[in-house]
Batch of 2 targets.
Target 1
Amino acid sequence: MKAQLVLENGARFTGEMFGAIKDVSGEVVFTTGMVGYQETLTDPSFAGQIVTMTFPLIGNYGINFEDMEADKANLTAFVVREKCDKPSNFRNEMTLSNFLKRQGVVGLEGIDTRALTKILREHGVMRGVICRGEPSDAEVSSMLSSLDNSDVIMRTTAKEAYVLNSPGQTHVAFIDMGAKQGIISSLLDRNCKISVFPATVKPEEIDAVKPDMVFLSNGPGDPLDAPGTADTVRALIGRYPIAGICMGHQIIGLALGCKTKKLKFGHHGGNHPVKDLSTGKVYITSQNHNYILSDLPDEVEETFVNVNDGTCEGIRHKSLPIQSVQFHPEAKPGPLDTGFLFDRFLKGVR
């Protein structure tokens, strides 16, 4: 079925709709991964977004349910230059098209993804719609005006508290802002007992389980839309070691007095270089975020910096056991260069 992606600046791209057949709106972003499209599809940090893959052929190794980063696809729509309908891989269980259809996610293929990416790089991330046929400007305007992604954290956080691996050595109170399975697995692999809490958790709920440390996960959207999570973390400062990744990094920063700002087109993909300021070593990292920390207070120091644009990629408190990173040490997808950070997070506890 013919369909169009229309950006809020009026740019139109015509392609073929696949997967779920419906009209949708979302924030249009691009990600630079050559592989890992399944992890992209299921990463909760993409909730509310229309995701464009810059690599031209997507779906060639199919879908398998072992590599899911959440129990369902979380993005709004998936845009590709060309999809593969005959995947070849011994782990393949389903085609990309069938997976999107089952998940209720719109796919769009056949557009010039290179041109779309250049527009987003020049003008920044913007809202967009994918509609069947050729929607009028009035229809597009109506859909864009009703777009609201302020609830994406609540859409993806845990619905209630639960416990994983209860015999574990280190007890982690894990605040789920829209967590990837890879982060949880990385902690389980290090023999942690994990008490998972929704983003709405209160300090007294964490105190009740007597954890050894508090850990905040990744998640979608604007950290200022988090449901009081920064206040909870602020109340826990000085009482527990605290660590976080991506959205968790931003929430910890807010709790410590940092500010946040939105990037022009975000960091999405598995090839982002960051520099460790303590060693000068550069790591290639997996990233997926539109917001960063800025205006660090005196008691907070920067630990990693983005080599491409100089933005903050990690912080730690100068006197308390608090540290976080903007990138994803667990990868999924991407390089495993910084997996050692999970051991660093836990070092202050053991």
Target 2
Amino acid sequence: MKLDELFEKRLLRKIPKDALKSKKSLEISKKYLEDSKKLVTTGGFNFVILAAYTSMFHAARAILYRDGIQEKSHFAVFAYLKEKYLTQIGNELLFEFNNAREQRHEGLYGLEYEFKEEDVKHIIELAEKFYKKIKTLLS
């Protein structure tokens, strides 16, 4: 789906640029990243996936708030970043962000999927890279 369609469907909408919300969203991202690392020790791998993805989602929202965009869809966040920040973030990291979005969806709504230790280690590393990349872009 193209950005024009996402705006037409109001899955993305323009709002005033908000540096404070951007900063706060990045702080929330950092907190969820730290939480995901702590959760690994409990063996609750589904919660690790959720926390790590949520970290990435809030980091991405920080960019949107800075740009004056409000999202109403997780996919729309990915589509916006892909359209506007592909070069700065990189195709591989954006692909991994989208994959994490799908894992999060499966973890929340799926009936049979179970995450393994290697899944959670990978997503935590990914969330860390994503957070650092977005923080650098916002600097």
